[in-house]
Amino acid sequence: MVKFVEVSKNFGRKPVLSGVSLEVREGEMIALIGPSGSGKTTLIRMVNGFVVPDSGEVWVMNRKVEYRSRSALKSIRKETAMVYQLFNLVDRLTTLQNVLSGALGRYNSLMETLLSCMGFFKREDVELAMDILRYVGLEEKAYERVDRLSGGQKQRVAIARALMQQPRVLLADEPIASLDPKTGKKIINLLRRINQEKGIAVICVLHHIDMVREYFERVVAIREGRVLFDGRATDLDEGLLEEIYQLEEEACTA
Amino acid sequence: MYSLNSGVKTSQRIRSFLIVLGLVLVLALSLRASRFELHKLFTGASQSAELVREMFPPDFSNFLEVLRLTAETLSVGFWGTFLGTLLSIPLALLSASNTSNRFLYPIARYILSLLRAVPELLYALLFVIAIGLGPFAGVLALIFHTVGLLGKFLSESIESIDPRPVEAIRSAGASPLGAIRYAVLPQVLPLFVGYFLYMLDHNVRVAIALGIVGVGGLGVELFTAMRTFDYQRALTIIVVISILITLLDRISAKIRGDIIEGRAVNKPYLLVLSLLGLSSVYFIPLEISNLGHRMVTLWEFIVSMYPPDFSTLGIYVKLMVETVAIAISGTFLAVLMALPLGFGSARNIVHLSLLVNLFREVNNFLRAIPEIVLALIFVAAVGLGPFAGVLAIALHTAGFLGKFYAEVVENIDRKPLEAIEATGTSFLQKLRFAVLPQVIPLFNSYSLYILDRNVRAATTMGLVGAGGIGFELIMSIKLFDYQRTATILMVVISTIMLIDWLSFYLRRRTL
Lengths: 254, 511
Description:
- The complex is a heterodimer of chains A (254) and B (511).
- With 254 residues, chain A is α/β, with parallel strands linked by helices.
- Chain A has ten helices and eleven strands.
- In chain A, the strands form two sheets. Chain A has a six-stranded mixed sheet with strand order 6-8-9-3-10-11. A four-stranded antiparallel sheet of chain A has the order 2-1-4-5, with no helix packed on it.
- In chain A, helix 5 crosses helix 6.
- The model of chain A has no long low-confidence stretch (mean pLDDT 90).
- By secondary structure, chain B is an all-alpha fold.
- Chain B folds into two domains: 26-56 and 308-511, Orthogonal Bundle (MetI-like fold); 60-303, MetI-like (MetI-like fold), CATH 1.10.3720.10.
- Chain B is built from 20 helices and one strand.
- In chain B, helix 13 (313-344) runs antiparallel to helix 18.
- The two termini of chain B are 34 Å apart.
- The A-B interface holds A 48, 50, 74-78, 80-82, 84, 86, 88-98, 100-102, 104-105, 107-108, 113, 115-117, 119-124, 126, 142-143, 158, 161, 165 and B 1-9, 12, 413, 415-416, 418-426, 428-429, 432-434, 437-438, 440-441.
- Strand 7 (121-122) of chain A pairs antiparallel with strand 1 of chain B.
């Protein structure tokens, strides 16, 4: 489904990822953990081309990601949806409009583009958007501006927008980092449901170890740009966590 | 199968349809009333080109005289700004709800909006009759308008300060004045300085325009050159004006930026600015010697306006409608021009810095020439009448709006932009669904502000024959028919105050 082959990336002179290889299989749900700045976000942003690797390859659904071709990137982006820490919604639009913007990638011809820009969407897309809103439990908020919603509701709108793409992979970049624990749990639960019911692969960057243990089967830990652990969430013991999250000073002397 | 059911309720859609319909209607009526004719734009263009050709080569024969007049204009601008700022501070404190009291607050507010309602050119016109030709009338005109405008800006910034330090100092037993000195002033000082520089920049532009009614400086020289068809000399003055304004604009923008972001102020810029200020001290235009006598003539002028003559009120109201129509048409054209200019000079939209700089220079150039000067040129090019006024206002304010729009576009939130891009959209869709929803409310707000300002500007267009009520005003003065002057002033001031209030209300609603 998604395969990283020996990818490396430097920002300036600072190496962020050094030779990471990882394969995510179809319909899998994995958690990416590791200290801040370890390269987790950089890794998932390589999937949809917002970060270009210095070396190595990324494969999405058996196609190699061609970073130089705009049209190739666009077709990859349509298959891979992304959810963010700060939701990244368009504040002044309604919930439904935000969700519908997830369908824009399917409107390719000039006619479709112009119609969508004037506010015309395909009827089946509007119905799909309402179905998805029902699925995430925000049906009655469809006509409300998103800046009036709570944080948890906003993240559910963002997930609905992602689902609107009908993606094969859902990338989630710290989706609950700005939510309270209870709301965060609901969001992770929703991602889990999406993974099981719709068979969409989920790659989730996360800091909450308790939730990782509860909801995920596979965990990948990254530290200083390298994969430190790749295995079952139940195998995450205290010693391992200590190693993953050991203090910065110790890392420097090591 | 397509449907418009894209997230807006039907009742809301009907309402916004009605609003759009109303706007289109107002616009159509305005274009008609300001005698907007598209074909004149093309014949006018060829005539303007002809006019520009006649301006070459510029005549530098009396360049020294032009420099002396520049200094005179600068000193009117500096003195008006300096004294106006001093006077605006107490009024600003009185009209800020958190530093004033219940009784003085509404009075001070009303005085400020009244002072603001009269355009500088009208003040100058009145002071010229009342106390005679010369720079002193110009300085007075600038002072009055500056107090009204700056007083409002300052009181708004005083109202938005953090109240906690004030409370802390008050609870420690400080007097109200002590609290103002040690808790209010330190908070608003950077903004004060920023507004002062903005006013200075604005007032030097205005000081040029004031020459047209006899205040002296560069304006008179330009006016005479245009009236005597001496276009080569006119070009010299226009070049000097645009260099001067561009220079001041740069300097004040740089210093303002430094102060607001808390950097050390750029020394060379500060030095140039202080030198300009000092030079105006040398050219002290205040002829205080016969101040008493002048006050008497001013009083006599005011008395001679009473009672106002309402017999021709109908005509004045009709002309005022034409004036507002000029402002609306001009603003509409300005918005049309500013959209490409604004997006073109936003670095996050256009990635070619050469192109961005080109667009920015166009913005600067358009802003550099005061609209009354442009009106003079357009009257020569497309003939007398409101259409010349529309074009002058449109060109000048397109530069302002282009700059404002660019700032709005550059300050949008990038996060939704990336999210929309991540769904695999095209450039056009990204613009429509992630950029437009963010910028439109602010575009509206700025355009309304410019419309408000343009109504004021449009009342002065008639002074050079570019339509609107200004022509009647200047005629009534030339015929010593001061009772009619009073009626016209009442119509002008009440309309401007109404529009000011309306635009304030609309701006609140659109955000």
